[in-house]
Amino acid sequence: MASPEPVKFLLVDDIDENLRALEALLRRDGLALYKARSGIEALELLLEHDFALALLDVQMPDMDGFELAEMMRGTGRTRRVPIIFVTAAATDEGRRFKGYEAGAVDFIYKPIDPLILKSKADVFFSIARQHEQLALQKDALAKAAAELSGALDRLQAHTDNSPLAIVEFDPDMRLLGWSKGAERMFGWTAPEMIGHPLADLGWMPDSCIADMVALFSASMADTSHQRGHDTVRCRARDGSMLDCEWYSSVLRRPDGTPVSLSVQILDITDRRRAEETQLLLIGELNHRVKNTLASVQAIATQTLRYTRNPDQFSATFSGRIQALARAHGMLSDRTWQGADLMDLVRDQLRLGTIDPARLQASGPRVQLLPQPALRLALILHELATNALKYGAFSRPAGRVVLEWSVEGEQLQLRWQESGGPPVQAPLKRGFGSTLIDSSMKSDGGTATVSFRSDGVVWDLAMKLDGPAAPGAERTGRLAAAPALAPAREAQALDGCRLLVVEDEALVALELIAVLEDAGATVCGPARTVEEALEMIEAESFDAALLDGNLHGKPVDAVAAALTRRGLRFAFVSGYGRENLPAAFAHAPVIGKPFTPHQLVEIAGSLTRREENVVAFPAAAVPR
User: Fold this and answer.
1) Where does the record place the modification 4-aspartylphosphate (predicted)?
2) Listed residue (449, 607, 585, 462) closest to 520, CA to CA
3) Is the distance from CB of 331 to CB of 370 less than 8 angstroms?
4) What does the pLDDT look like over 285-322, one tens digit per residue?
């Protein structure tokens, strides 16, 4: 702490010996003595210094002590300096009165008694020190007040800008404070709320008020209670109900008696809704996944029942799974809001096994709900597959006309074949016919087949959720879909070394099995980004098949490492193109689930360094 400034006394006398005597008697630590030999010198010193006491000789030439005192009282700077007159002359009452009128606080008579002088000087020295301490305290208080004001301003700003509603109650549950956050959250202003009891505000349901008052009263009565947390439903000014979390704390006096209850309120209405939505989505996802798995199980079982050998089963089962997967991908693109009927028809051309010029499809725009869309996708696949195997598409001149119309809320479809081999009604009903019939009936519809001499005709009817889109255009012959290169022999990958990067065990086994059956040597599988990077640095291979992500991690680093080594690769993913690394848009995408033909064809194109690598359409890739 810095040493205090010295206290200053002014000594005024025209005789040097008197000044030296006063100086000798008054000298002490912390005291600075200034000497003047005339009134003029004294006035000059008074203009430069702040004095705690002035000892003035009464008898001086030119300007006596009384005149100097009167001049001091006439100036604001020196008006409050205490004055003690020092005189050798006997002072009558008149002169004494004149001295006090001039501003004196006391008289000291010559010869000076040292004890009296020191005693009186000590009083003014102590007063000066007290004034100094008071000034320091005043400055400290002013600084503390400024800091407190700044802190209160910051607190008020935080309170006003906080997303929390901050509310304060007195021990009788009368509202003391209502923040800007509370105004924004609930709609009432502070003047409308402050001063009213909780029960009179209409802010909380009546059923909650008694419980809350009892809880708050117990919190205030419990001296060990500091803060609490409760979930409360509150009413907003517009009548809506908000789910809120209340964080309360009791403010107390030093003796423990409660002053008020401060409550910070968090609106968790959106969070509650999000949690409920999340539970609903999880339940819905669980339901859909199990339904999908049950559908796959049924397709596998029924396909096995109606096929004669493993090769036929593999091709038929894979085609049906592909049809189901493409329909799922289409629905995911539309966030499971439904699918357009014409898009389902176009999807049958994605694999390029049907010549679009031989299929004529027309009808109004029809939006199907998710489940009917999935069933109709399988139905269209069965119709196209049967036409390829036994019907119109099995002959070069064969044609198919697919037409639909909407009557009220009923969708009518007709699949009519012509130009195929002679038609005979089958002796035994196959799985395809059974699937079509049962699928239509599950939607409250019907399926009728006619084996005419010029070709098979299917008439399908199903109930729609609503009428067709008004004014929708009818679509005629379909545009050609990108065709795949013709299938190669079984040993299309002889001598090729391929890296497989895949974290799903069953998918990795399928990839390896298909590639090895085609004659390739497989490295891997690498199941993590780190394993993949190590294998890329340590081993030699011709190309790679890369999963879209590995255990939830992006594969950009793996794709970059392959690119640096000049190795081509294809993504094998359930994601669409837009969800894969944008920097590697040149890489083809094999959608999951895939067919052996797709896998071998793209793997072969990678190892052959073909410029135009086949990329299966993103719309056909399930997400």
Assistant:
1) 57, 547
2) 607
3) yes
4) 665 666 666 667 667 776 776 677 776 677 677 777 76
Using the CB atoms, write b or e for 425-436: b if 16+ within 10 Å.
eeeeeebbbebb
What are the counts of helices (DSSP H) followed by strands (DSSP E) for the chain?
17, 24
With cut-offs at 50, 70 and 90, classify the pLDDT of residue 613: very low
Report pLDDT digits (tens) over 47-92.
999 999 999 998 888 898 888 988 998 888 888 899 999 887 666 6
Write down the residue that tokens 């800007």 correspond to. 180
Residue of 343, 418, 433 whose CA lies nearest to 385: 433
Q: Which residues is 400 bridged to in the sheet?
A: 359, 417
Instruction: List the Cα angle 138/140/144 in 5-degree steps.
Output: 115
Q: Which amino acid is at 237?
A: R
Percent residues over pLDDT 90 in the chain = 31
User: Encoding tokens for residue 507?
Assistant: 């998918």
Residue 593: closest CA among 224, 285, 296, 267: 296
Find residue 246's DSSP bridge partners.
230, 265
Two tokens, residue 203: 């802010």
Q: Provide the pairing of β-strand 399-407 with 359-362.
A: parallel
CB 373 within 8 A of CB 339: yes
**What is the spatial distance between Cα 136 and Cα 495, in angstroms, rounded to a whole number?**
94
DSSP category for residue 204: S
Contact criterion met (CB below 8 Å) for 467 and 408: yes
Provide the 8-state DSSP code for 394.
Answer: G
To which H or E segment does residue 182 belong?
A: helix 180-186
9 forms beta bridges with 33, 53
Q: CA angle at residue 237 from 232 to 238, to 5 degrees? A: 105
Token pair recorded at residue 307: 């096929």
DSSP 38: S
Structure-model confidence comparison of residues 575 and 517, the more confident one: 517
* Most confident of the ranges 278-282, 303-307, 479-483: 278-282
In sequence order, the 6+-apart residues with CB closer than 8 A to the CB of 530 are: none
Phi, psi of 408 (to 5 degrees): 65, -115
Residues 478-484 have a mean pLDDT of 45
Cα–Cα dist 10/26, whole Å: 11
- Check: CB of residue 581 under 8 Å from CB of residue 553: no
Cis ω before 111 (30° cut-off from 0) = yes
Which pair of structure tokens corresponds to residue 241? Answer: 């109900």
* DSSP tag of 187: -
pLDDT the model gives residue 34: 95
For 71, the enclosing helix (H) or strand (E) is helix 65-73
* Model confidence pLDDT, tens digit, residues 540-571: 999 999 998 888 889 999 999 999 999 999 99
405 - beta bridge partners?
412
How far apart are alpha carbons 89 and 97 in whole angstroms? 15
Structure tokens at 56: 């003035």
DSSP at 397? T
For the beta sheet containing 241-252, the strands, ordered from the edge strand earlier in sequence to the opposite edge, are: 175-178, 165-169, 258-267, 241-252, 227-235
Three-state secondary structure call for residue 92: coil
* Axis crossing angle, helix 556-564 with helix 529-538, rounded to the nearest 10: 10
Q: CA-CA distance, 479 to 355, in Å (whole number)?
A: 10
pLDDT at 25 over 50: yes
